[in-house]
Amino acid sequence: MLLFDPVDGVRVAGAVLPGHVEVRVGGGTGLVDRDGVPAEQGRDVGQDDRPVVVVELVAVVAEHRDPADAAGFEQLAEAADIGQVLPQQDPLLIGDRPFEVVVVGLQERRRVIRVPGEGVRRHQRVIVVHTVHRTGLLRHRIRGDAGPVGAGGYSGAYTVARDRRQPRMQEELKGMTDAQYVTTGGDDPRKVELVGLTFDDVLLLPAASDVVPSNVVTKTQLTRNITLNVPIISAAMDTVTEGRMAVAMARQGGMGIMHRNLSIADQAEQVEIVKRSEAGMVSDPVTCTPDMTIAEVDALCARYRISGLPVVDAEGMLVGICTNRDMRFEEDFSAKVADVMTPMPLIVAEEGVSADAALRLLSQHKVEKLPIVNGAGKLTGLITVKDFAKREKFPNAAKDGSGRLLCGASIGTGEDSLRRAGTLVDAGVDALVVDTAHAHNTGVLDMVARVKKEFGDKIDVIGGNLATRGAAEAMIEAGADAIKVGIGPGSICTTRVVAGVGAPQITAILEAAVPARKAGVPIIADGGMQYSGDIAKALAAGASSVMLGSLLAGTTEAPGEITVVNGKQYKMYRGMGSLGAMKGRGLHGEQRSYSKDRYFQADVTSEEKLVPEGIEGRIPFRGDAGAIVYQMVGGLRAAMGYTGSHTIAELNDAHFVQITGAGLRESHPHDITMTVEAPNYYQR
C-alpha cells in the first residue's frame, strides 16, 4: 500500500504548518482534520485560524537512500536552505519498496482564493516544493494561508485517498529490477537530469484578472542597478547592433548591446554615437576650431549625425558656431570655418540653467542650439531644440542620470579585454557584457570578477551565456550584476548540433532563476524567441528581460545593406560563431576578427581550422525597429492581461501548461490559407 507514517506537522523552511491536511495521490483526494476525522469538501479554508496544507504526490522520486548516500542528500538540501521538508519517522512505502522524500528546491508565490461559505476573497501562499531527483518525479504542492504560521504544530497522520489506478501501479512496481525504476534507462536516476522544455512546449495558463493591457507596467531591472522601461535588449551581434540600433532600442525604452566584432576604437565610437545622440545637456559636445575646413566639419556632423558644431579656440573659449545653414551654399569645402561660421556674440546660457529657462531662450530667439558657458566664457555644454523634441516624441526612452540614452557593449576574455573595457567605460557605456558561448568556465568567471573589481563602481557587469543552476551560482559568486541565459537556442546557432550541448530555453531559465532569485540578480533570456508570446513565456519562467537577435536583424537600423531577391527585400543575418564572423569577413568586405574567443578558438591561427558554431543567411526586411518593438511589447501586455499580472514581477509567478505537438498545431492558425499577414505573426 501507499502511505505516509505519522509525522509531527509539516515543516517548510523551518516553520511548522498546522491545520487540516489534504492528500492527493494521482487524481484522488481526501480531506481530514487534525483528529483524523474525514471533513467535508466544502469546509471553510483555514477554519479556526488553521491553514490548509495540501500535499500532492504525482509520482515516485527514488529508492530509499543507503546510509552512505545520506551526506550527499543532506548537502543538496543544505544548499537549497530548506532541509527535510516532509520529515518521516519511517520511509514511504510503494508496494514492498521503501522510499524517502528529501526536498531541495522551493518556489513561493501568492494566489487569491474564494473562501467557501463566506463569499470573500482571501490571499493564500502557495509553496511548490521540488525533490532532489527530477526524473521520476515526486512533486508536492503545499498550500497555506498567507497569515502568520503558528509555531506549535500538531501530531497527526497522513491518510491517503486511493484512486482506481493505484492497485495497478502497485502491481507494476512489484518485482521490478533497479534498472527498471529509471524510466530513461540505465541504473543512475540522475544520469538524465531534466526533461527540457522550450517555448513551443508550454503555454501560459490564463488566470482571474482585473488587468487592462494598456495599464500594465513593463518596467524591469536589466541589472542590479539599471532599469529599463521595456524588457527588451538587442543582441551583441554584428548584423544586429551598432550605434543606430542602440539608439532606436533606447528610445523605445530598451537598450542595445554593442557587438565586439570591431576594433576597440570603433566599438567605443559606436558607444559615443549613442551617448551623444540626445541628452538633457551635452556636457562634452563635439567641437571644431576656426582653422578646420568645412569638409572636416561636414565629416564630423555625418559621423555623429548632428547638424552643427560650436567653434572654440585653443583654450576652449567659445568663439562662434558653425551649422548646416552656414555651410549649405558653400561650394568650396576647403574653406576655413572662420570664414563661414556665425561668430560671437551668440545666444548662450550660463552653467546651471534650468530646462524650462533653456527652452524659453531657444523659443524667444528662434535658435536651435544653445551653448552653455561658464563665467569666463569657456564652453561647458550644449543644449539643442532637438533634445526637447525627442523627449516629447520618445517619452518612454531609457536614459542614464545625465539624460543620455542607455547603451551596453560586449567584451570577451582575450588579452585586450580589460583594455577594451576601460575604453568603453571612458566612452560612457552603462553596462559591459562578458560575452561567451559558455560562461561556466574558469576564464570567463575570472574575467567577470576582474571587470567587476576594476570598473564595478562605474558600470554594471553582465555575465553569459549559461544554461544551468550551477553555472548561475558560479556567475553570481563571481560578482555579476545580471546573468545571460541561453546556450544554442538562436535561429543561426548550431552549437547544440555541432557540440551536442545545450539546454532548451524554458528549462534553462527555470534552473538559472532559482539561485538568481535568491541573490536578487536579474536574468536575461537570450535567444530562441520567434513571437511576442515567447517573450512573455521567458519572463514568466523567471527572466527579467529578453535579448532579441533575429526579430531585429531585418530592421532598418540593423547593420548591413538591403538586398533584393526575386522581388523581395532581405538583410544579412549571421551567428557570431559562423565562419564569416570568426574569419573577420566584415559586412562591407573588410577583414577583422574579434569574435573567435567567444567560442574559445582565439588560439586558432589558420582560418581553415576554425570549427563554426553558427551559420550565415538572410532574413526578410521588416522596417523600423521601433515598429517591431511596439508589436513585441503589445503582445507582452496582452499576456499580462490574460495572466492577471500588473507588473513583470507578477508575471514571473504565472503558471504554465505543457502541451503536445497537437496542442502546438492548434495554437497556430490552421485550416486556412492566410491572405493578409499580421505585423506580429508570420508562418514558419
UniProtKB/TrEMBL annotation:
Methyltransferase recorded as keyword: no
Residues at which NAD(+) binds: D435, G486, I487, G488
Binding-site positions, IMP: S491, D526, G527, G528, G549, S550, Y573, R574, G575, M576, G577, E613
MF (Gene Ontology): IMP dehydrogenase activity; metal ion binding; nucleotide binding
Residues covered by the CBS domain: 281-337, 341-398
EC code(s) of this entry: 1.1.1.205
Active-site residue numbers: C493, R598
Activity regulation (record text): Mycophenolic acid (MPA) is a non-competitive inhibitor that prevents formation of the closed enzyme conformation by binding to the same site as the amobile flap. In contrast, mizoribine monophosphate (MZP) is a competitive inhibitor that induces the closed conformation. MPA is a potent inhibitor of mammalian IMPDHs but a poor inhibitor of the bacterial enzymes. MZP is a more potent inhibitor of bacterial IMPDH.
CDD domains tied to this protein: CBS_pair_IMPDH (cd04601), IMPDH (cd00381)
Pathway noted in the entry: Purine metabolism; XMP biosynthesis via de novo pathway; XMP from IMP: step 1/1
Positions of K(+) binding: G488, G490, C493, E666, S667, H668
Protein's GO biological process: GMP biosynthetic process; GTP biosynthetic process
Catalytic activity: IMP + NAD(+) + H2O = XMP + NADH + H(+)
Cofactor or coenzyme needed: K(+)
One of the Pfam families matching this protein, by short name: IMPDH
Keyword Oxidoreductase: yes
Record-linked InterPro entries: Aldolase_TIM, CBS_dom, CBS_dom_sf, IMP_DH, IMP_DH/GMP_Rdtase_CS, IMP_DH_GMPRt
Alphabetic keyword roster: CBS domain, GMP biosynthesis, Metal-binding, NAD, Oxidoreductase, Potassium, Purine biosynthesis, Repeat
Enzyme class: oxidoreductase
Annotated family: Belongs to the IMPDH/GMPR family.
Protein task: Catalyzes the conversion of inosine 5'-phosphate (IMP) to xanthosine 5'-phosphate (XMP), the first committed and rate-limiting step in the de novo synthesis of guanine nucleotides, and therefore plays an important role in the regulation of cell growth.
Subunit structure comment from the entry: Homotetramer.
The protein, known as: Inosine-5'-monophosphate dehydrogenase
The organism of origin for this protein: Corynebacterium variabile (strain DSM 44702 / CIP 107183 / JCM 12073 / NCIMB 30131)
